[in-house]
Every structure is written in C-alpha cells, then in structure tokens.
Amino acid sequence: MRPAALLLLLAPAVAFAGAQTEPPTKRIGSVDYVNIEEEAARVGLRVERLGSQAILLKDGPQPVAKLTEHSRDMDIKGLRLFLGNPVNELGGAFFVSLADYRLRLLPRLRPALCLPRPPVPGIIAIDPGHGGNDHGAENHALGTMEKTYTLDVAVRLKGLLEAAGYKVVMTRDSDFDLPLALRAEVANRAGADLFVSIHFNSLYPNTKTTGAEVLTFPPPAQRSTDSWSMGGKNDSEPAAAPVNAFDPWNTVLAGAVHKRVLDALRDGDRGEKLAHLGVLRELKCPGILLESAIISSDKEAALLKTSEFREKIASAVCAGIGDYAEELSALRAAEPKPAPGQAPDAAPAAPRSAPTRPSAP
Ligand SMILES: [Zn+2]
Questions:
Q1: At the top level of CATH, which class does the domain 123-324 belong to?
Q2: Does domain 3-113 have CATH number 3.30.457.10?
Q3: In this structure, how many other beta carbons lie within 10 angstroms of the beta carbon of residue 96?
Q4: Cβ proximity of 258 and 175 under 8 Å
Q5: How much distance in Å is there from the Cα of 290 to the middle of ligand 1?
Q6: pLDDT tens profile 254-293
Q7: Angle at 315 between CA 313 and CA 316, to 5 degrees
C-alpha cells in the first residue's frame, strides 16, 4: 500500500482529504469560489457566525480566522491579511475564492495539507533593497535614505543567521544597485531555500502612520492588493511565475516573519499584501518582501537612526525564519517513511543540514 493511502485510512477524520480532492466550486463573476463553511468543517475547523456579515473559524476553542462579507481584509491568528478576492455570501453561506482558500488560508491553518513541501531551509538569500543611485525612499526632514538601512539590517540579519548555522547569500553587500530580476538570479544560482527582501515604506505626505507589511507575489489571476484602491487597474496575470510554485509556502513564510516583526516592533499591522514584484517573480524558492517600518513617519524615521531598532528588526526576521524552518521540520518529521525500495510520495528534496534554532528576539 502506498504510504499516502495508508495515511488516509489511519489519520483522524480530515487528514490529507482536503489536499487530495478538489473541493466543489461555484463560479462568482469570473472567479471560482468554495463554500468556506463546508471546507472548514472538512479540515476540522468549527464555524461561528458573527452577526449576518462575518464568520469566525475556530480550531477547537481557539478563534483562528475572521472573514467578513465583501471584504478582502481578514484576520488570521491575530495577523492582518489581504485576500486576493473579496469574501462573498451566497444563499446564506460564506464563500472564499478557491485560490485564497488553498494558497492563503490552508497554509496557515492546516499546513500539513499543503504538498509538496520545500526543503527545510539551509541557505538563506537576503536582498537589501535599492542601492547605489537608487536611494529608495528618503526621509525629507532627516535626509536619511532607505538604501542605507536596508543594507544595515541585512548585514545584521546575515550575522544572526550565520550564528544560528545557516548559510547566507547577499544580493548586494555594499552600496550599489542591481536589477530586480538579477537579485532573484543571485538567490537561484546559490540554490537558496528562502529569499527575503528588506525594505522600508514611504507614505508621504503622511508622516504619522507607522507599521510593518509583508508582500508576496500574487497567484495567477489575482490582483495586487494596491490595485483594488480607487482608480487602480486589474493587474492580474494569467500565467504562473516561477515563484508561484511555492505559493502556500510564501504564505507560511510571510506569516512567520510578519508575526515576529509585529511582536518585536509593536508599531502597527499594515497587513500581508500581494504585489507583482520583479524581485520575487523569478525565484525558485519561497520568498517575501518585508516593509518593516515607514521611513516617512516621524517616529519610525527617528527610531531607524538607532542601532537598537535596526537590530530589533534583524532579530525579528531571523526569529521568523527560524519559526518557518521549525514548522517545515516538524511537518517533514511527521511524514510517513516510504517502504524499502519505494520512492517517497509527493516529498521533494530531503531536508538540508539542520541549523540550530535561532533564539527569539
Ligand atoms: Zn524599497
């Protein structure tokens, strides 16, 4: 008997069923949707109505997700996340797009159902945003530049990751610019298992808003989060980019880093968003772009001048990467062992040498 089939017999209730069978879909507009109340139940989550316009998904007694009708803005385990399509209500039931269900919700609520799994990361690519003539965003009052801080945080992060046993590759290690696609190529050539691009946001003329956001590449047919704002154009792409092969794991990585950065900085949650970013498109591993603070904000620009704040960001990202690695290790440890002479079922490359667990910031 194939290991996967054995598991279907032995595992409690839902295991793997969600991943191996296509949920029934309903076309709403041009998008395939799933009945989230039925699908949640199928993977062992409880559903609670919050009035007529929202639902809460619970894992045992624990609320794990809140979805609101007509909204893409949701809460998942205390983190803000923007779905690629709005939640819909149809015939009294709540519907979530199939892509959002499989690539954003399941990876965070039932990661064991997301196959295949990438390797437990051993080689980390760090991309300090901008550089050289491209200064990135600037703080007008202080004259500080994004490119300086992205490199500073990246160098700190490199030190922390190496101390934890990871191999690190930097897309740039001094003040020069390089094209976005080349940054992904540096990671791909090094055989990186994970890619993180470090940036700082700017919201001029707003100088008050603070907070972090994490960006991932949209799945095919989904729009960038910003394209939904007034006057925005549908920028969805029909075909998958190389990085879309890792969509569930882009989501897991985004959540892990998002949580640690938010916990460390406590300066506001601007959410996990989708964007067609040239730096992520060609990646052959899971990747995210982190806007950890806002350089146009009076408060965060002042904080960024202190090495303590930049160190705090670096250790939070390091801890997030450690959480992601730990989650993948645990999932891989629970994989059924193939019978002698049998190839592993749906399991890609074996884990690389396991780095030690980075300590919490
Ligand atoms: Zn930037």
A1: alpha beta
A2: yes
A3: 27
A4: no
A5: 9
A6: 999 999 999 999 999 999 999 999 999 999 999 999 999 9
A7: 65
